[in-house]
Amino acid sequence: MLFRRRVPVGWQEKLRIALWPRRSWGRSTKYVAKRVLRLSGSPHAIAAGIAAGVFASFTPYLGMHFLIAFAVAYLIAGNFIAAATGTFVGNPLSFPFIWAATYSTGNFILTGSFNSDQNLGGLEGLTHSNIWHLGFSGVWEIVIGIWEPVLKPMTVGAIPLGIFFAVIFYVVTRWATMVFQLNRRHKLAEKARQIRERAIAQFETNKTEEA
Fold first, then answer.
1. Rounded alpha-carbon distances, angstroms, from residue 115 to 28, 36, 98
2. Could you give the CA distance from residue 67 to residue 56 in angstroms, rounded to a whole number?
3. Which of 55, 90, 59 is nearest to 73 (CA)?
4. Per-residue pLDDT tens for 165-197?
5. What Å distances lie between residue 15 and 29, 32, 90, 96, 105, CA to CA?
6. ∠ CA 176-99-93 to the nearest 5 degrees?
7. Which of 41, 154, 160, 190 could cross-link 60 (Cys pair, CB 3.0–4.6 Å)?
């Protein structure tokens, strides 16, 4: 296949890249920011897309963040590429803090306490070896069993926290996009002016030589 690696990357290397990208998190963040600023679209569309991705990252539904981000971006007229980029906020380094924050916030909203006294509905004895023998109904029971004590408070907590950080990212991204697009227009206008002046100067030089 075209562009396939000559030496396949093992799972250890994939895990290392997920935890610490080759470019480091700092360089990767700068790269992503530059890609976002260069997107075509209005400042609102780009900022709304980023906000949608950030909001989706706070939900506990791993594997569905892109779909959630696209749905939210559609509702608020956001850029889909920016929405996918916004999910970059959710990563192996930030997820532990996000999950802890959404879980505690959700419990506080639902019960008035940051900690939950609910158990896992009898799922404590479930082991990795017998998961494969449960079938669809068994897996569904697991989902139902962890909904009340885990997923429900995380979902409830994700709403206010996700909106809060989405608004912050929206404001910052919109401002940065407006500044970047304004500077780019000024540079393009300056370049066009220089080209026009050189063309006029060349025309006058040719006219003088012919005279």
1. 35, 38, 16
2. 9
3. 55
4. 999 999 999 999 999 989 888 888 888 888 888
5. 19, 20, 16, 16, 30
6. 60
7. 154
